[in-house]
Records
---
Amino acid sequence: NAGVTQTPKFQVLKTGQSMTLQCAQDMNHEYMSWYRQDPGMGLRLIHYSVGAGITDQGEVPNGYNVSRSTTEDFPLRLLSAAPSQTSVYFCASSGTGGSGYTFGSGTRLTVV
Amino acid sequence: DAKTTQPNSMESNEEEPVHLPCNHSTISGTDYIHWYRQLPSQGPEYVIHGLTSNVNNRMASLAIAEDRKSSTLILHRATLRDAAVYYCILRDWANAGKSTFGDGTTLTVKP
């Protein structure tokens, strides 16, 4: 059971570059979310999806895009990286509305 | 979104029970109460969740107040490996995609 797989684990970007953080789950979960976690802080919701073809904004969506073309994959795109986007990014998935989330191991992103 | 309030930090002695409180006074009837923990340099890990009744699993117990405005995560015998940040969140099953986390409680376990 792979669970939730995030790639890459580490990434350094220059200001203005774009990139895509990958997230894949093999549990046939409907719900997927992206969170960011700044040092010493809690998690903040960026975008989420309740099924293939359906996405919505979370608390801090600016500077990020998502799409959900399949149940398994939920990539997060940084359009033009800024130092303020330096953070650890976590992807999570879950089944029905009352069930618990499974989190990936995170992507540590540094923007210089 | 309904919010939760947790103490910033708590301490416990090893092998003693730990009671981690969470207030959620604006909880709605469709909100599940979830608990997660995050070990250093790892992603959050699901611990337990419940709706109205107390719940037990191999990791912990969840005690929910009768009015559901507060809950307590109970670790029956704390170990050093339980030192982590514990998050209490509400998950509305009617709007289940959007779950927000607060800053959690940092639990320190002393040997």
Note: Chain A touches chain B through 28 residues (CB under 8 Å).
---
Amino acid sequence: LAKTTQPISMDSYEGQEVNITCSHNNIATNDYITWYQQFPSQGPRFIIQGYKTKVTNEVASLFIPADRKSSTLSLPRVSLSDTAVYYCLVGDQAGTALIFGKGTTLSVSS
Amino acid sequence: NAGVMQNPRHLVRRRGQEARLRCSPMKGHSHVYWYRQLPEEGLKFMVYLQKENIIDESGMPKERFSAEFPKEGPSILRIQQVVRGDSAAYFCASSPVGPDRPRYEQYFGPGTRLTVT
């Protein structure tokens, strides 16, 4: 599985857009890029997944450049409730273990 | 559709006792995964099971830990002779039938917080 690197922490204020970048230089051709969110004392929650270009859902957008060696999770207009740890994972299919790194701790202030 | 259910949510055991953690996957999911999260650390994979089969237990300690997913009933993670270092949050996740699905997506339960005194 490709190793991922993301910032340990980020701070933001309510209403701002937050972009969290993840590096995955050794991503394989079949790998998808997936982001999970974990609130304190809860299990991780799937946010978004993409293979290339841009993916958008009701929660976030995921931008993936052509070389796929990095990706950016974009959270529009964050609120206090977006304070959580965000994990970037890279893998190729279901039925395999998820390998979590330390993630990015996002703190949103008022 | 109920999500992944885990019980108990909190479990306190004295050193040397056994801990049994239960996980009921989402309806229609036959793949179950167990993860452990130590305080201030990320989640670590422990074991991956399908009904009646252990597929990958590479993350499970060789001693004292075992897991099963019987044909009927929930998946069970069993920790024998618990020690203080076993204190952690244990999360179960499930996914739909794969591995032909192209998605790297699992649904997590709320976790069981084990405290060993």
Note: The radius of gyration of chain B is 14 Å.
